[in-house]
Write the structure tokens for this entry.
Amino acid sequence: MGLPESVVEQLLRENENHECPDAPEICVRIRAIANLPTRFGDYQVVAFWNPLDHKEHAAFVHGNVYGAEEVPVRLHSECLTGDAIGSLRCDCRDQLTESLERIGKMETGVVLYLRQEGRGIGFTNKIRAYQLQDAGYDTVQANEALGFRPDERDYGIAAHMLGSLHVESIRIMTNNPAKVRDLERHGVRIVDRIPVVVPPNARNYAYLETKAKKMGHLLDLEQTDDLDTAEENAR
């Protein structure tokens, strides 16, 4: 069972004219909620809209999370090349599918899909960073060469989305300690961290190694998929 119809109606009413005068940049409104059967299980998709920048974000909700404690939550930033095309340069698609599969087998859970392409630098700059990586830069050096921090993301919108769904506390599914700290800074109560570690492949090993060594991600790089297996998994 997902969000009951009465709760869906309540959430839509609450968000009809919702505003955040003190923090308009992270303000989002729930605009629509629908059932979404998937290959990973039965979900409901919640469409969020930011009236300031007009970006749309999504929550994929499994079970009734309204007022729930210790809800498993995955924050996933948009990655067109990985999520949709199956790029082997990153582990984004692997982490997304792993999270959806695991939550689909749990009583409750949420995957937040945030429009923060390229760790917040946007699609075009992400491809520019790829060009620099092709020339020998690592992922941190490439971002810095373009004038950005290694990670430009902010999770205030994610915190707002969880609050809009009335999630009381979460078990965060991440390998990134910075994500935990930023959510807590925005008032999210985190009771546990669930690792989401997928084996690297020959094409993304150096990328993941840089995330571990330079950005503090908690990754196990001992087990490496062979390239054929990685390419099959990406299809």
In short: The longest helix spans residues 92-104. Strands lie at 29-38, 41-49, 56-62, 71-77, 109-114, 170-173, 190-194. The chain has a mean pLDDT of 92.
